[in-house]
Design brief:
This protein is α+β, with helices and mostly antiparallel strands. The chain has 2 domains: 27-105, Serine-tRNA synthetase, tRNA binding domain (Helix Hairpins, Orthogonal Bundle); 120-453, BirA Bifunctional Protein, domain 2 (2-Layer Sandwich). Helices cover 42% and strands 20% of the residues. The strands form 6 sheets. An 8-stranded mixed beta sheet has the order 1-12-13-14-17-11-10-6. A 3-stranded mixed beta sheet has the order 9-15-16, with no helix packed on it. Strands 2-3 form a two-stranded parallel sheet. The radius of gyration is 27 Å and the shape is elongated. It binds one RNA strand through helix 3, helix 4 and strand 9.
RNA sequence: GCCGGGGUCGCCCAGCCUGGUAGGGCGCCGGCCUGCUAAGCCGGUGGGGGAAACCCCGCGCGGGUUCAAAUCCCGCCCCCGGCGCCA
């Protein structure tokens, strides 16, 4: 395999790597074990190679032997060696498996400017945008999530309590049904109706169009992938309870387009001059949301199935960092087009994810909750995923392989964007304002709403 | 699902029948030569270990036979063609 940042650091500067464990709040016994296993692996590897070398030497002599007598002699030596190699290889295979397993558990390095901390509340806001509607009862909370950190957002104090998105959806607009969906599927599923269907499409179109105009290639990926491919994308042990698996087949429903897009280069090297490869994917996403408990059970904020536009970049190691900023800006521009007030936070070392070197979350203001909620997340994985999935490019100078860098980021998750719109763009008469940037995607559709989504006239069904 | 053909280095292909150092072409990189954007010639171009010499591994994946497997045998995956079935 080409040089992997993590393995290189483990071998050349274990103490620097230990600092990563400390920052992430990880148990260092994993590091000790990795160091021990790696040196055991290397010494056993050399031992076996020496034996195999002997074996090859005598095997060659068998072929070149002049007499039958000589031949018989060499064959018996080779036989002897073969059985020793067999024995040693069994032991080595165990070591190798353990070695590979532990490599897959190792955390990525961290960027120098990742804040050290172990809870979401320590995430560091870096900037904000928009004009937030803040209920007078939530002013203190708003301050604590913005100006306290030196991040300024315009705001307007509202006296009337905002309607939570779930109530907007089901009772004010009458365009969602989570009760019946719960009955026929389970909680966290939903029916969306009428104008919200158009809104869902329009949101996808807006995000795809903005990214396509920035040079991102559009893609609809497979919605199911093999387990070993998924393992290359993430720390499978941690995530396996979150993933829907197809019965009797080695297929998993994707939780995000990130994974099948990443797999475009799975065992499929590209040429150096093809980098960077920038993609904007659209897919349905399926998530068990195990461990979410009772959080966000109402409405469609946290659901098992939704549509999402995803940004993905395969980058050259020499210039990958700029894309983290570029992709974050892209997300911000989409939210600005939707006129949604948001803040960007740098995620702390303890919450960043095993494979991630640096991550920004983008959070939209929810007036009824008095807090910013995550709508997007942009991560730089360096060569962590590339190592697992063997994602390489062929160096032009010498034809050798090198790992690509991968970055992924939310473009726009549509159902969550709908909740943000229902919260931020609700009017006193129950209608919902449609941001101007979305309108051109609705204009060509005669039955679609154009400037406002109005509550549905009551009828018996649903 | 059945029958047949196929999967070999970034791409195209040979080698398989008859087991014994994986070869050619294209592309790319470097060098040489010739002064002219060309052609020609030489070398390099899968992975690992090693300071290096060099050694080990690698022919879709996994097993087996053998002193020795790209090559023979078994299972699986994928691609192409034909047949069947079909929202």
């Amino acid at each position: 395999m080409p040089t992997w940042t993590v393995l290189e650091l483990l071998r050349k500067d274990p103490e620097a790597y230990r600092a990563v464990f400390k920052k992430r709040g990880m148990n260092e016994s994993l590091l000790e074990e990795a160091l021990k296993l790696d040196s055991l692996y290397l010494s056993k590897l050399k031992e076996i190679e020496a034996l195999r070398s002997e074996h090859n030497k005598y095997s060659k002599l068998v072929r070149e032997a002049k007499s039958q007598e000589e031949k018989t002699k060499y064959i018996s030596i080779v036989r002897e060696l073969a059985s020793r190699i067999d024995e040693e290889e069994k032991k080595f295979q165990e070591i190798k498996n353990a070695w590979e397993n532990i490599l897959k558990k190792l955390p990525n390095i961290l960027a120098d400017d990742v804040p050290v901390g172990f809870s979401d509340e320590e995430n560091v806001p870096v900037r904000g945008w928009g004009k937030a509607k803040v209920p007078s009862s939530k002013l203190k909370e708003f301050y604590e999530q913005t100006e306290k950190w030196g991040v300024r957002l315009d705001y307007e104090v509202i006296e009337k309590e905002p309607v939570p998105h779930a109530d907007m959806l089901e009772y004010v607009l009458g365009m969602g049904d989570t009760q019946q969906a719960g009955k026929i599927a389970s909680s966290r599923f939903y029916y969306l109706f009428d104008d919200l269907v158009w809104l869902d499409f329009a949101l996808s179109l807006l995000a795809l169009d903005m990214l396509a105009r920035k040079g991102y290639r559009l893609v609809i990926p497979p919605y199911m992938i093999r387990t070993k491919v998924l393992e290359s994308a993430l720390d499978y042990d941690t995530f396996k309870d979150m993933i829907y698996k197809i019965e009797d087949e080695d297929l998993n429903l994707i939780g995000t387009a990130e994974h099948p897009i990443l797999a475009l280069l799975y065992d499929n090297p590209v040429r150096e001059e093809d980098l960077p490869i920038k993609l904007a994917g659209w897919s349905a996403c399926f998530r068990k949301e195990a461990g979410a408990g009772n959080r966000d059970l109402k409405g469609i904020f946290r659901v098992h199935q939704f549509h999402k536009v995803e940004q993905f970049v395969f980058a050259h190691p020499s210039d990958s960092w700029g894309f983290l900023e570029e992709m974050t800006r892209n997300t911000e521009e989409i939210l600005q087009a939707l006129e949604l007030p948001y803040r960007v936070v740098k995620v702390v070392s303890g919450e960043i994810g095993l494979g991630v070197a640096k991550k920004y979350d983008v959070e939209v203001w929810y007036p009824s909750q008095g807090r910013f909620r995550e709508i997007a997340s942009i991560s730089h994985l360096i060569d962590w995923q590339a190592f697992r999935g063997n994602l390489t490019f062929i160096r032009k100078s010498d034809g050798r392989r090198e790992y690509v860098h991968t970055l992924n980021g939310t473009g726009l998750p549509t159902t969550r964007a709908i909740t943000a719109i229902l919260e931020n763009h609700q009017q006193s008469d129950g209608a919902v304002y449609i941001p101007k940037a979305l309108r051109k995607y609705l204009e060509s559709i005669p039955s679609a709403p154009k400037d406002y989504i109005h509550p549905r006239k009551k009828s018996a069904f649903p």
